[in-house]
Amino acid sequence: MTNITEASRILAAAFTNHTLIDPLPTDIAPDSFDAAYDVQDATLKRTGAKQAGWKIAVATRAAQEKIGSDGPLIGPLLDGRILEDGAHLTTNDLHFPNIEAEIAVVMASTPPSGATPESILDHIQSMHLAIEIADRRYHEKQNPIQTLADLNSTGYFVLGQEIENWRNLNFIGGTVTTKSNGTVLATNSDPNAWPEIFIGLAYLVNFLAKRGTALKPGDVVTTGACATPTITPHGKIEAIFDGLGSVTATIEKV
């Protein structure tokens, strides 16, 4: 049976102290997605970190069916960890930097419960190219439930340039490539493998409503990987969106 108090204590200590841990013992670990969200909430509260937005992961139906989820997996983006294009980090900041080219939105207003993928566009201020640098606190990669409890692998986030004329949606489905020190990490030219951006945002709105909260003006939401997430140890990282631009950051080895 899940022990929210003990599981969140362990995970929060790992996050706060920047240490790695073994898998949570089976007698306290969450055993369902709902339980993992309860642990995630308690973990975030224990860390004292201020939330500045949300991350949407497992953002295609194929990926969700593979893990037995009825929708994407949700986690926090944290204040002080949303960085500008060209950001500089070091290997002391991250354990296992997982590089994800993403599309992010900045919210202009609060969508009501019941928002649809179509209606949510009216609540968006801007859309941006971005890199999520996900990270975990476990020594080894865990299953989706344990990952979700670990703040859904939140790490750092690089918010890049605004997408011009994003309302025409023509930017969706282009080729996306991630690189580290010039070496290709992943590339995707299949529009069907892009995250379902507005479906995911509508899911997030209604997910939050069920948990008694909501999106706020100024919240940053990242909508899922546009190419396969790939771990890289350090170096200059890039997310290149053909015809749109790129986002960069550096992870310096120390």
> What's the β-strand tally?
13
Task: Classify the beta-strand content into a percent band.
Answer: 25-35%
Oligomer: single chain
Rg over CA atoms: 17 Å
> Largest sheet, described in full?
8 strands, mixed
Quick check: average pLDDT?
A: 97
Overall geometry comes to globular
Low-confidence sequence ranges: none
Terminal-residue CA separation = 41 Å
Compute the number of helices: 5
Structural class by SSE content: alpha+beta
Helix content: 10-25%
Q: What is the succession of H and E elements?
A: HHEHEEEEEHEEEHEEEE
Fold and architecture overview:
- There is one protein chain.
- This protein has 254 residues and is α+β, with helices and mostly antiparallel strands.
- Helix content is 22%, strand content 32%.
- It is built from five helices and 13 strands.
- Strands 1, 2, 3, 5, 6, 7, 10 and 11 form an eight-stranded mixed β-sheet that branches.
- A hairpin with a 2-residue loop joins strand 8 and strand 9 (183-188).
- The radius of gyration is 17 Å and the shape is globular.
- The mean pLDDT is 97.
